[in-house]
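We examine the record.
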Amino acid sequence: MHDPAVQAANNLHMVRERTPLVHNITNFVAMNYIANALLAAGASPVMAHAAEEAAEMAGLADALALNLGTLTPEWLTAMIQAGRAAADRNHPVVLDPVGAGATSFRTASARKILQQVGVRIIRGNPSEVLSLRGGNSKTRGVDAIHSVDEAAEAARILARELGLTLAVTGPVDLVTDGDRLIRIRNGHPLMARVTGAGCTATALVAGFAAVDPDPVGAAASALAFFNVAGEKAAHIASAPGSFMIALLDALYTLTP
């Protein structure tokens, strides 16, 4: 197994050298911030959710991030079309099952994508991840009501069952493919006080997966990068509004 810290540094260097194009079918709430975060990190964003072009755009991009934040039936169709096109080209597909477990539509949509698309990485909070296994897991809107530790064993099992990597985020993040497991103990409480932080993390995971064929290393690297940037931003900003801007600056200035 690679040294995760060395792998993270190398991956950040590769993102900035290669400038991977990340196709996002993501939510209206965080779309602009996600695009700016990818640019700050060194990647190139494209936001395209029309079914008429989703598959074609996915074929042009280096990675695809699917986010259920402002889901509609039309967007679900576009996500599946884009996901299939990306997977057919062996491009990484990252799924963010926002709100899975909160409503039957979101939960069923996340499971449908997993059934029909070759998803490589899932990035979600503990409750969202637990909901993908079934049972009685619930979320409070898009917020988790379970801890990362509560979801850890379920994540291992689900990763093995689905043959993919899970990135479960919270105060301490966890990344596992069912065998390997990495915990990321960085970040700052202000990251939970701004909208779209998790969505941004998902997009960054896709950017890192575009340059690293190891999904565990890519996800852990992206989360470490994002969380350390959050720590740097919190040294400058003391409240959510200024923190969001400082976080973008930290993503830009943080070195490998």
